[in-house]
C-alpha cells in the first residue's frame, strides 16, 4: 500500500480530516521516510523528524509511520516509550528539563522544581494551559559542576535557587 493510501486509511480509521497544513507535514514526513529508503532500521530518525513536524507523536502519526515502514504499531510504540526524548502528549513551546541527578539533587534541585511547579501552575510531566511551557525531570544533564541545572531549549540555567525561577520564566514570556 502506498504511503498516501496508508495516510488515507489511517485518517479514515481514526475518524478525522487532515487540513492543508497537516497534509504538508505528512508530505514532509514521507520525504524523510524516503530519505531513509523506508528502512525500519531508521525508525528512531524518522520518529525524531515526525516529532519535529507535529510537536509530539500522535496516534495517527505513529500509525502512519508503522504502516509506511511495515512495522507493527506495538513495535513503534515500544521504541517511543523506551526513549525519553519522544512524547505522545503535546509539549509546550519551551520544555524545561530539570536535572535530578545526584549532584543537582543534593544541591537543591527539588525546591527549584517545586518553584517551577508553583510559578507555572503545573506538575512534572505537564504542560501549561497556554501551551508555552512543559516541565520535565531528567536523570542527568551532564553539568554537575554547575548544579542545580535546568535546560530550556538550548539554554542552560545553572546554580539555581528557587527565588530565581520567576526571572527565568519571564525571559520566555
Largest pleated sheet: 4 strands, mixed
Alpha-beta content class: alpha+beta
- The outline comes out as elongated
Strand percentage, roughly? 5-15%
Q: Catalogue the unreliable spans.
A: 12-16
Order of strands across the biggest sheet?
Answer: 2-1-3-4
Report the count of strand segments.
Answer: 4
Taking all Cα atoms into account, the compactness measure Rg is 19 Å
Distance between the termini: 45 Å
Number of helices: 8
Give the overall average pLDDT.
Answer: 89
- What's the helix-strand series? HHHHHEHHEEEH
| Number of separate domains | 2
Considering DSSP H and I runs of 4 or more, what fraction of the residues is helical? Answer: 40-55%
Q: If you had to describe this structure to a student in words, what would you say it looks like?
A:
With 173 residues, the chain is α+β, with helices and mostly antiparallel strands. It folds into 2 domains: 3-82; 94-170, Glutaredoxin, CATH 3.40.30. 48% of the residues lie in helices and 10% in strands. The chain contains 8 helices and 4 strands. It has helices at residues 3-14, 20-35, 43-54, 59-68, 73-82, 102-106, 109-120, 165-170, and strands spanning 94-99, 133-138, 150-152, 155-157. A 4-stranded mixed β-sheet has the order 2-1-3-4, with helices on one face. Helix 1 runs antiparallel to helix 4 (59-68), helix 2 packs antiparallel against helix 3 (43-54) and helix 4 (59-68) packs across helix 5. It is elongated and about 50 Å long. The model is unreliable at 12-16 (pLDDT under 50).
